[in-house]
Amino acid sequence: MEHSTPLASLGWSNFFLSQLDETELSLTPVRITGVHRGQIDGLSVAGPVTLPMAGGFSTGSLAIGDWILADGDRIARCLDRKTELARRAAGTGNAKQLIAANVDTLFIVTSCNADFNPARLERYLALSAEAGTEAVVLLTKADTSADTDDYRDRAARLQRGLVVLTLDARDPGAAATLGAWCGDGRTVALLGSSGVGKTTLTNSLTGLQGATGPIRDSDARGRHTTTFRSMHSLAGGGWLIDTPGMRSLGLTDASAGIDTVFQDVTELVGLCRFRDCTHQSEPGCAVRQAIADGTLDEARLNRWDKLKREDRFNSETPAEARERARRFGRQIKKSLATKTRFDGDKR
Fold first, then answer.
1. Strands 67-71 and 28-35, how do they pair?
2. Taking the CA atoms of the chain, what radius of gyration do you get in angstroms?
3. What pLDDT score was predicted for residue 28?
4. What is the extent of the structural domain holding 170?
5. Would 129 be classed as within a structural domain?
6. pTM score, two decimals?
């Protein structure tokens, strides 16, 4: 990395500058390139910076790509994010786990083999839409498949206007293919499962020589060759955030993102005769009519319904969870009372 990179080349813009008050103009803007248990790595105009994690900041509160203000060797504050990629943290509750911040374009990487999974891609797309990043689907291993066009068409149908590209991650020309989304001051991120070529693609885009691993022929799954998030300078300008392979991506507070990805479904829902239509057997259901006409795939409807229910569950507050449990308890009591009366009548 260069030691005299102008702030604009690091991704600094008026969005961040406008957040500073007069007392903060003397502080040093730093772009975070690595988050560790006790410290962060970053870049300022003067070069690489390492700062201790203190003052109320923790690994869970800062993300790769964040802009912070440094006062000497102290983190003064973290600036508001232009975009935020986050998923539901493992375990119970609705806590978020930050993935990356201030990303302009998210490259969602999958391959033309058994890894291709529409349901998982829709999750990635909803995550991107909710974060406010542009999504581009990259189909790797196209040279190993005889059905490349089919994979591309299936991916393109997952969201209106979605850009889908096929490429060979090992090809040095991949950088030119993705050049429209890269460039000085731009930040892109790679997201996808293990074994789809993310590390190979990172090597091609950055000139690095990170290790790559084999995949199993039986299910196209690969080993985790990237084990932590990192940010690298791109050979053609801009920045790349690489992430470990993700097989589990829980969504939380992503309702708007889901609606963006499933715009075809949400438009139909708005045309149903009844506002509380369950899209099962109600008269005047525009969703069921579209399925009958063949303009909507029922599998896609089921995936939309699953994501919406999951997001509602993951996003609810403790108070909302208690109220849901109380409603469920009342329903059970009512059902048992009805059953008791029915059994009594039979006797």
1. antiparallel
2. 24
3. 97
4. 84-242
5. yes
6. 0.83
